[in-house]
Amino acid sequence: NSCLSSMIRHFMLERPPTRKLVPQWSLTLVLRVLREAPFEPMGTISLRALTLKTVFLVALASGRRRSEIHALGVSSGLLKLSKTEAVLRTSPGFLAKNQAAGSVAAPITIKALGDFTGPDPPEVALCPVRALRWYLHRTKASRAGRLRLFLPLPSA
Description:
With about 160 residues, this protein is mainly α. It is built from seven helices and three strands. It is extended. The N and C termini lie far apart (about 50 Å). The mean pLDDT is about 90.
């Protein structure tokens, strides 16, 4: 019995168990799924699906941390949308993890995918600027003075 426990201890030292700290996922799979139902067509999807898609595409295009995405604002001067880009800023008073106190956060500029890919529908379905436009349109009536870009979702 002591021989068996000695062998097990030896195996544990030779090949210690590893923990996966980051869940495994596939960007290709996620982008493929975002092009189809329940995430398209944008005019008929649920607000929940629209929110998830928009947050994911903005996070992916900006490369910013979750806290910065959460702090994006819609008040005057914090959000500018055009056909070719979206310029986003965090709410005043927000300090990013890597930002020096007293400094002003740089705006997040996200270019529309149509400028790079042309009007190809599968690629346009992944455009964060298009998703932001739809999201702002769908949430306009329920904003009621809320200054954050992304509104909380009701419990599922």
